[in-house]
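User: Could you check the structure of this?
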Amino acid sequence: MKPLPFLTKSGWVACIASAAALSAQASAAGPADFYKGKQMRVIISSGSGGGYDTYGRVLARHYGRHMPGQPTVVPQNMPGAGGIRATNYMYANAPKDGTAIALVHSAMTTASVLLTGKKVHFDATKITWIGNMADENALCVSWSKSPIQTTKDMLTKEFVVGGTGVGSNLEIYPRVINSILGAKIKIISGYKGGNNVALAMERGEVHGRCGWPPSSIKTSRPQWLKEGKLKLLLQTGIEKDPDLPDVPLIMDFVKNGDDRAVMELVFAARSLLRPVLAPPGIPEDRKAALRAAFMKTMGDPAYQAEARKLKLLVKPKTGEAVEALVLKLHRTPKPIVERTIKAMKK
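Assistant: Sure, the predicted structure tokens are below.
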């Protein structure tokens, strides 16, 4: 390029050098300079009230202290389609500069595999996974006075359970167990919520339920555990809960590799119950900052104290661990995926 006529050659060189220095300075500006004075959002894929909203708001209250530049962090509810609306937004429309993260439903980690054709417009393998706030297996339980007293009874006799809708875990889990393990679980659908199923157990309308997290039992029916009114038959998840050493894990009953792959695709969500994500394509230094701040927040005594007060689980996973599991699940061969979808609907 020729020097501008009103600049000498030396002046032109100095101008270029100055511009290069400014560009380098801008590039070198780290996350602290970027986030200072800014506002971040934590999108929550549910309405106000309930588990996801509580977890998301507690995260928002503590997260900013651990971010470079200490931005203000505000929660924003974006309910719809069981988490699909918020995840679609984060994938395609949220700013890709690291100023928006989201806590979404656990099913979003496998939605682009198992829920195709249901307005899922994102690819989970391209999402920026920040971490996971908690994981927890769910239990199949029976009422102590029912004819189902052991795991063997559950898998070989007719086991009548309550359900809350065809898309709920209380019905998906029994269908998968029937399909893969050959059980004879009978689902009585139509209950308005988990509490209604618990009451039905107490009245003897059903033998039990599948898909009940231990933390929920301890919160809603602690006396049932103390008084031995529940038989803990089976835990659903891909790894055994160390707090439940005497309760068999569903994976222990799987007979071959294909069955295991189906079970992993269904029950991996128990390991990713409260996943936190950011849009694809954010700068690498801000991605690293978001992930580091997440784990610092999870280890923050103030965060943990509030979580204990609200009876929230604190069992985090790093963003790298979440990403690795999501990628593994999305490499599941198509025939296994098709079989899994069929088992969930059967």
